[in-house]
């Protein structure tokens, strides 16, 4: 591992590996062993282990996405080298130097054809997994020193900011090709000692190539300490996996991750982001959710991305979401961070507000600004009142309205794990993924989503509003397609209807359905919302017949799209309560990964946020 991973002198010193068991344990006591991926973790006997099986899919997905990021990083470096070589060839063909080409009146040099170079790279047959391994073995270029760009950028540095016992860090070091080193940081010294011991027992301790360096200290202060270091020394990947919100760590993370680096962000405070505690969400993210909104998981993702984008914008950086998903009781987002001051200006086109009817599921979104003739203009209010019921409009946000997935990366990830019988070769990883079927199903669902449509409706919410039976989903999709609009499912919510059609079309579809399946007069009398919606005259012609060529007559790929919980009480666990030392203010808090906690009473809370409170 590169020596530049060592923390600055003013921060806490790295922790040396410690013994796996307490001094003089009882003769019959043995460490508790947990095996996940290629990591084997040992925990002292007599202590409760905070290990949540729900997070295995989180770590499996992270291993896959970071491995793909390492290859994309190497491919970008190769493209830059190819671009420089092509530019040099064009100058030599014109008999000019770079300086001469910039003088006034100089002969124009044709621009470099990046699309051609990119295509040549893609069809070159390069084994990018082998390439990132070779780059890591060659080492990273010395900070601030000239180096041969053709040698590649070197291996990736990863910071596991809230590492707990180091399970995630060890898996990253052992399973992701091309890792230069991992820093496993935790606020608790005892957790850092255990992480160091586990790294040593797994053969990837500090000082070894691609090893894990465990340290104890405040994650925010440690990340900020890298602002004084050379940009080449910064982390390529920063993983934030706290118990609760990641908001306190975002500013330090977006400032100190490398240009083009990857942030992996987990938020488990769904009670606040889904509207149960809107004041808490506003205090943390500066954004207001919608209580009881049917789109709560995707809204939580978009609220967090908007917060990350505005935080990055303050230091002249932008974010590019790669994959943002809701899983179980939390959301997980992978975003790249780039130096792009011009792109910051476009944040007002990508971030906006949500306008939700207070009496029915009707909603609309609008960015904070529009661009006309290269001039930015404030947006107009899309819904002064609900067009269906005349009800008031609730305003939520700001939220991210641009795409939350990079479908090219999603397709690459799917290609890696599509071969069920040869998962190791197919993934290009060092280990198979225990939750391969679920990760494959999740990514398949993501690939089928409309990429440019924020939020969605829920079929039960729509039918409840008018008091009718639920029409088959296929008939709704047929009617939307026949009207000239698009419609898809959503990766987390089985009943979701994601469409670019106006809400008036969906209500007209239900009005047409009610003509075939009438609603009782009693329902209309007792449900004023239903009466108001059904009394309106339709404005669209509804056709429920199957359009020609829909799905090209084919079947959807086989995948586990919405898996059932594998066991009872499948959800968040109570926060681990380690002993507090003098001066410990709990700034970082524990991670959702494994950590050690003394026996504690089980929490009755059903949400991580409530468990934290």
Describe the 3D structure.
This protein is of the alpha+beta class and about 625 residues long. Helices cover about 35% and strands about 20% of the residues. The chain has 22 helices and 19 strands. Helix 1 (about 55-95) crosses helix 4 (about 130-140). The longest helix is centred in the N-terminal third of the chain and has 40 residues, at about 55-95. The two termini are about 40 Å apart.
Task: Show the helix and strand layout.
Layout: E1 32-36, E2 39-43, E3 48-50, H1 55-94, H2 98-101, H3 114-122, H4 128-138, E4 156-160, H5 167-175, E5 179-186, H6 189-201, E6 212-216, H7 219-224, E7 235-240, H8 247-256, E8 257-267, H9 270-273, H10 278-285, H11 296-313, E9 317-327, E10 330-339, H12 341-344, H13 347-350, E11 351-357, E12 363-367, E13 369-372, E14 375-378, E15 393-400, H14 407-416, H15 423-427, H16 436-447, E16 457-458, H17 459-466, H18 473-482, E17 487-488, E18 496-499, H19 503-516, H20 521-526, H21 528-535, E19 595-597, H22 608-612
Parallel strand pairs: 4-5, 4-7, 5-6, 7-8
Antiparallel strand pairs: 1-2, 3-19, 8-10, 9-10, 11-12, 11-15, 13-14, 16-18, 17-18
Helix pairs in contact: 1-3, 1-4, 8-11, 14-16
Arrangement of strands in the largest sheet: 6-5-4-7-8-10-9
Largest sheet: 7 strands, mixed
Gap from first CA to last CA = 40 Å
> What share of the residues does DSSP label as strand, in percent?
15-25%
Determine the mean pLDDT.
85
Count of helical segments? 22
Shape designation: globular
What share of residues is helical?
A: 25-40%
Give start-end ranges of low-pLDDT stretches. Answer: 1-11, 18-22, 579-592, 594-613
Structural class: alpha+beta
Oligomer: single chain
> How many DSSP-defined strands?
19
Question: What is the C-alpha radius of gyration, as a whole number of Å?
Answer: 27 Å
